[in-house]
Specification:
The chain is α/β, with parallel strands linked by helices. It is built from 16 helices and 13 strands. The strands form 5 sheets. Strands 3-6-9-1-10 form a 5-stranded parallel beta sheet. A hairpin with a 5-residue loop joins strand 4 and strand 5. Helix 10 crosses helix 12. The N terminus is likely disordered.
Amino acid sequence: MEEKQAPAKARNVGDLLREFREHRDAMRQELAKVIIGQDDVVEQLFAAIFTRGHCLLEGVPGLAKTLMVSSLARILDVSFKRIQFTPDLMPSDITGTNVLDEDAAGKREFRFVEGPIFTNILLADEINRTPPKTQAALLQAMQEREVTVGRTTYTLPEPFFTIATQNPIEQEGTYPLPEAQLDRFMFNIKVGYPTADEEEKILLATTRHEKPEVSKVLSGRLILNIQKLVQSVAVSPFVVKYVAHLVRATRPSDDRAPPYVREMVDWGAGPRAGQFLIMGGKAIAAMDGRFSVSIDDVRRIAIPVLRHRVSTNFQAQAEGITTDKMIQRLLKDIPEPEIPKFANAPMPPPVQE
């Protein structure tokens, strides 16, 4: 008889984080075959995926926003669907609809036909090109990971991410996203122009006949396991206190808000911003192979988390103060919380000579 093998020893968190970092590096290497530069954008996309978040990519045409998302889907062994948003798109075109079927016996019954939202990664391309009624079709899916059609609620597959793109300079025929819709996005990522060296590499790579091939790195089940790992990263009360202070400082009605916020901000961020700051900090720490979140991790993702949750008024616009500049100023002005050390420790006995 063969001897029974002893069960494998459970790996500790350090080994899991080290393995996760290797997966992250492999994803970055594969994505770099197609996307040149945009390191911050890629890092924020990874952070959203590993924390079950949704992203809004904003940039002028030609910056490879759609290519970035489709390439990300190619290196993940998950399903991917793309919706081109247009003014005549209807909610049922996204969620699906009930159709009347008739069998051979002449019996009729309704059958639900799933829409493109039933996928793992959904690319909502040019989301601001469709009216709010159709934009709202994503609300339930983004928040509850389910879709209700008629009287029936259908659960979406796991994992599920919505990555939307929009053009900030196009005004005609566009519909700005409502605040409730914007608040569902974890990150509002600005895709900027490449540097001079990066642009030369882009021109050289894209004018060849060769098409780079990427390999799949993560499966859907492994992504779910990584999400659980990221959730287990520790967050100290010290960091939670800083996050709460930072979020509350964006609200002009709060007593602790700086004077310039009260003068130049109409409304600030809600509690969901603090949740995303902590979850994003966990993802940054885990991708760096660390066990706990630091304040610097929160600061690294503060702007993409807060920029679409803070509304500046006309005075700020007249003085050329954008939302990003306002958040950068808050990051400099909001101090780290003071935690007294050895507050309850007994006094040492006097030294006898």
